[in-house]
Design brief:
Elements: E1 6-11, H1 15-25, E2 36-41, H2 44-53, E3 58-62, H3 70-80, E4 86-91, H4 97-103, E5 107-110, H5 118-131
Parallel strand pairs: 1-2, 1-3, 3-4, 4-5
Helix pairs in contact: 3-4
């Protein structure tokens, strides 16, 4: 992976969740990844519009967001976007991992977000995304 900037979309209907994710991951999750540019979305419609607009490498989606949950958005993006960004969903309960599997997310993060785990998960997703030859969605 290069030191090229990566764009990470974080979605939650609650601003404190978006802030918690950004704070836990930071601006550079690993020496070989980043720096990150953060894009915040507060509605599911904003997520779809932003992904459709292009330039997103990774989406971190709150599974507890209202009224549109991150699990449903993950599934929608997977089905509708051929060259989709990497997808990670925030889950509040470990038993919800099966929902993340259904949503076809690439990874999960537990909420509250662990600042020791989150940067590694984000870095791994961005590396895998780059290794598959996926570029940010461009329309």
């Amino acid at each position: 992976m290069s030191d090229a900037p990566a764009t990470v979309l974080v979605y939650s209907s609650r601003p404190e969740v978006r802030e918690a994710v950004r704070t836990a991951v930071g601006r550079r999750p690993a020496p070989d990844v980043g720096p990150l540019t953060w894009v915040e979305c507060a509605t599911g419609e904003d997520v779809v519009d932003t992904v459709d607009g292009g330039g997103v490498d990774l989406c971190i989606l709150d599974g507890e967001a209202q009224p549109t949950g991150g699990l449903a958005l993950s599934r929608q993006i997977t089905v509708e976007v051929a060259d989709r960004p990497a997808l990670c969903v925030l889950i509040a309960r470990q038993p919800d991992r099966w929902l993340a599997h259904w949503s076809q997310a690439d990874a999960t993060l537990a909420f509250p977000v662990d600042p020791l785990t989150a940067p590694q998960v984000v870095a791994d997703l961005l590396r895998a995304h780059a290794a598959r030859g996926r570029r940010p969605v461009s329309r």
